[in-house]
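Reading a protein record of the kind used here takes only a little practice. Each token is a code from a learned vocabulary of local backbone shapes. With that in mind, consider the following protein and its fold in token form:
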Amino acid sequence: MFDNLTDRLSNSFKVLQGKHKLSEANIKDAIREVRRALLEADVALEVIKVFLDQVQTKALGLKVNEGLNPSQAFIKLVESELTQIIGGENESLDLKTQPPAVVMV
């Protein structure tokens, strides 16, 4: 499942290759491909909407550093937003809750 998601996300970033700047049109193309990749990975639609709204808002105002091309800047943005929405910090598992904790493996 994760291999397929990785492949689909990689393909979505190819939309931006060869572009000299991030425009609204090519950002929308890349976001459309990211949406498809996340839908195929069974990510909840509400999560996808929130995530892509954040990405689009930040991408439209993104200043591309001189050392990066637009594709790399967009990849960095998507990666940081995915990390934020998933929860970038490790949290310990508290099994001493009442009622007993349910853990799915």
